[in-house]
Amino acid sequence: DFSDKVHEFINSKFFLSIGRFTRQKNFIFYLKCIIELVKKDDKLKFLIVGEGEQKKELLEIIKINRLSNNVYLLNNTKNVHYLMKKCEAFVLTSLWEDPGFVLIEAAYNNTSIISSNCPNGPEEIVGYDGGYLFNSNSKEDLIKIFSNFINDSERIKFEKKKIIKKRIKEFTCFNHYLHLQ
C-alpha cells in the first residue's frame, strides 16, 4: 500500500522512473534536469522507484534544491504496472541498458515513453516514432524533449503508443522462439 505522499503524486500528473540508484540509471543527471524543468513549471511531479548506493546523494540533491514537493523516491513496489498506467510518461535516463525490459513493460502498459538513446534497447524498442528519445546525458536535449512531450496533442501521444505497442511484439518469448527455429 502507498503512503499519503505517494497518493498525492499518483493523484496528480506525474512522470515515473524505475531503476536501481546507480551510475548506470543516471538519476543524478535526471535530478539536475528536473531542477530546470521545475523552474519552468513548478506543478510538475516526478516519482522515482528504486533503491541503491546513490540514494543518500539523490535525497541530498532533492533537499538542497527544495524539490520535495516535486520529486519523491519510493522504495521498490510490487505495483509498478499500476504506476505505469497512471503516469503521464515513463522516463528512462540510463547510460546503457541490457536491453531495457522496463521499456517493454511501459509499452505493454500503454505508457508514453521518454528515454535516453543509450546503447542496447531504447532506439530498438522505442525508436524515434514510438516515443520521445533524447541524446543520452544531454540536459538541453532532455529538457527540449520534455517540452515536446508536454506540448504534443493526445492524438500524437496515442499514435506513438500504437507504434510501440506493435513493436514490442518483436520482444516476446514466442517471437524469440520462432527465431531459434
How would you describe the overall organization of this protein?
The chain has 181 residues and is α/β, with parallel strands linked by helices. 47% of the residues lie in helices and 14% in strands. It is built from 9 helices and 6 strands. The chain has a 6-stranded parallel beta sheet with strand order 3-2-1-4-5-6, sandwiched between helices. The model has no long low-confidence stretch (mean pLDDT 92).
Count of individual beta strands: 6
Distance between the termini: 44 Å
* Share of residues in helices: 40-55%
What is the C-alpha radius of gyration, as a whole number of Å? 16 Å
Strand content: 5-15%
**What would you call the structural class?**
alpha/beta
For the largest beta sheet, what order do the strands appear in spatially?
3-2-1-4-5-6
Q: Spell the H/E element sequence.
A: HEHEHEHEHEHEHHH
Q: Helical region count?
A: 9
Largest sheet: 6 strands, parallel
Q: Work out the oligomeric state of the chains in this entry.
A: single chain
Average per-residue pLDDT, rounded, comes to: 92
Q: Gist?
A:
Helix content is 47%, strand content 14%. It is of the alpha/beta class and 181 residues long.
Draw up the topology in text:
Elements: H1 4-10, E1 14-18, H2 27-40, E2 45-49, H3 55-64, E3 71-74, H4 80-86, E4 89-92, H5 101-108, E5 113-116, H6 122-125, E6 132-134, H7 139-151, H8 154-167, H9 173-180
Parallel strand pairs: 1-2, 1-4, 2-3, 4-5, 5-6
